[in-house]
Amino acid sequence: VCDETGKEFTDIIYEKAVGEGIAKITINRPERRNAFRPHTIKELIRAFNDARDDSAVGVIILTGKGTKAFCSGGDQALRSSDGYADFESFGRLNVLDLQVQIRRLPKPVIAMVAGYAVGGGHVLHMVCDLTIAADNAVFGQTGAKVGSFDAGYGSSIMSRLVGPKKAREMWFLSRFYNAYEAEKMGLVNVVVPLEKLEMETLNWCREILRNSPTAIRVLKSALNAVDDGHAGLQELGGSATLIFYGTEEANEGKTAYMQRRRPDFSKFPRRP
Ligand code: 2NE
What ipTM was assigned to the predicted interfaces of this complex? Predict the structure, then answer.
């Protein structure tokens, strides 16, 4: 599968189900339990951009290759004094850009988790809108053990999902939790047998795709708005502008400007 520039991906697999409205992005480093390097993140960002811009896509699945891991976080072999470095001499934490991208993407992103979702991989599933877990899934933060932390979404979203006490437990103790414990904690939406994971995820996608894309777009930004502060309100506000541009009232303003006349908004109601 090629990306939009025609270059082949090396660290991910990017697929679209033609006529279905579903894109699937798979982290493809199973020999490293799907740990990501900066290059992996760059490819993920390109694939998510493509799925966002493709109006035939309504839902995006994020997953990991194989059944052993969704993602084990940053590739520790590439960790440097200033982030993670692969082909470049300086390190970076570009996974933070990916988290923001998923959060602001106006389409639902579903994490389909088999095996380990740990460290930065655990944060990735948390920033997705929904998580469907296989019964072999394992969740946890390893930061305090390996000398790392995510003090951004990795902390604040977790606290929202599981509550402040449990979030402290997850981060301070670095314990792992099985799929059923994670479900009980509110970390995942549903747990299914491993062999049914893909089918169940597709069913959730299809149910979403039957519903109004605009309603879902506005709901996603509304559900994030308070937590995301000014950026969250800006995202929600952008949807309001987008919808307003389709009205006769907005069009009158633009048309009057183009015709160099005074706009006439008199016929538009001032609703209570
Ligand atoms: C994921 C886990 C629990 C799996 O254990 P197991 O026993 O199933 O597999 P094993 O043997 O540990 O791993 C298989 C191979 O994958 C590599 C291992 O080194 C091993 O390589 P070989 O010995 O076969 O050569 N591997 C697995 N995870 C890796 C990783 N993250 N980086 C590099 N190589 C990795 C177990 O593997 C595990 O605990 N992994 C480490 C999890 C972890 O600590 N991740 C980093 C957290 S920090 C982070 O992600 C982060 C952040 O905190 C802030 C910003 C950005 C990122």
Answer: 0.99
